[in-house]
Prior knowledge:
- By secondary structure, this protein is α/β, with parallel strands linked by helices.
- It folds into 3 domains: 11-88, Orthogonal Bundle (Arc Repressor Mutant, subunit A); 93-205 and 389-406, ATPase, nucleotide binding domain (Nucleotidyltransferase, domain 5); 215-380, Nucleotidyltransferase, domain 5 (2-Layer Sandwich), CATH 3.30.420.40.
- The chain is built from 14 helices and 16 strands.
- It has helices spanning 22-35, 40-47, 51-63, 129-147, 184-192, 201-212, 216-221, 277-281, 283-292, 301-309, 313-337, 353-366, 373-376, 386-401; strands at 38-39, 67-69, 85-88, 93-100, 104-110, 116-123, 152-160, 163-165, 170-174, 179-182, 196-200, 222-228, 232-238, 241-242, 341-346, 377-379.
- The strands form 4 sheets. The protein has a 5-stranded mixed beta sheet with strand order 6-5-4-7-11, with helices on both faces.
- Strand 12 and strand 13 form a beta hairpin.
- Helix 4 (129-147) crosses helix 5 and helix 11 crosses helix 12.
- The chain is globular and about 65 Å long.
- Residues 1-21 have low confidence and may be disordered.
- Bound molecules: zinc ion (ZN).
- Zinc ion binds at residues 255, 269, 271, 273, 276, 279.
- Residues 255, 269, 271, 273, 276, 279 line the site of zinc ion (ZN).
Amino acid sequence: MRALPTPVVPRLDGPSGDGRRTPTASVVLRSILDNGPIARSTVARLTGLSAAAVSRQYADLAELGLVRERPARTPRSSVGRPHVPVDIDTRRHLVCGVHIALLHCTYVLTDLRGRVLAEQRIPHRDPGPEAVLADIEATIAAFLDEHAGSRRPLGVGVATGGWVDPAHGTVVRHTQLGWSDVAIRDVLEARLGLPVRVESHSRALARAEQLIGVHRERARKSLVHLFVGNVVDAALATGGAVHHGPRSAAGDVGHLPVGSGSLLGPTVCGCGRTGCVQATVADRAVARHATMAGLLPRPVFADLLTALETGDRDVRMLFRDRARLVGRAVALLLDVINPEVLVVTEAGVVRDPDLLAELRGEVAERSHVCTDPERTVVASSFGSRALGVAAGSIMLDATYARPLDLRPQPART
Ligand SMILES: [Zn+2]
């Protein structure tokens, strides 16, 4: 499937018809997201906007169903008008997220705070792009019918590994899936009749951490996000913006050299070298090792996770070795970029704090700049649901950046 010609500027980032007020609306909405329930006067104080400006923006946002007043806790006996707190309205809208993995798609619906309302995982019947997009179309329609209730969908965020170009809504290259130049956004928007945004899962995870993550204040200053699954890739963000670079190719860290661990490797990579991080610690490589070592009857990573969760000691040693190898890649990234926070999304460390401690131990031994791995290196805020939440947050991010774009557009003449 070839990419259709598309505009260079993403549509949701385009002129909203009210370019002056849109950024202010975003500032007010994000302040309410971060601090709500909160009095309007406090929003004004925190954002530096005038009380009148906050009230005006609040009225627009409330009309769109994005914010609402919460019952005031002010005692009845108090004098004067109570400060009615306002908050994000999580009852009226939702976003849909789809994460395309090697073997399956994960679907989530979240509210405007990124809380998961429904989640579903469906294996690919055929990993080709035509079949996967047809399945996504059918599944989203049924998923919304079943779970959306009275909430209105704002759009669909699609995340996947490999090289993704969000400006054109395409997967440029996903080696393991065998996809190249797949025009996901245009195909799905035409079929679903909803706005669709496409992003690399690592950048989507980084944006989710900045928008609604546990460490969001530090993540908004500077952040590296490292994803370790079947794909190993990274996202870098400074000053609140995620770095894309020419054709959005940034973050391809799969060939960082980490050597071999005490159990995993040496593994020959597709690039011809030995000891590249992706080839050595990918889900498939670890599952294959487990099978060869007699820990699993078949090399299925999901079975390996089940064994980890049930306390299998040999499997835990394997994940410990993986965490140590990932720690070597983390140390390299910390030395190059020196971020406020580095978030790791890896199946072991998001489930087991001891595995995160192993990873940090390797960082402490190898990094030349990171003096406090406990503070700097953290696991994903979203646990085992990270990929689905990240996909949904692509659409949340667009909503919080340009909330007034939700307004019905005047008819074109
Ligand atoms: Zn390589």
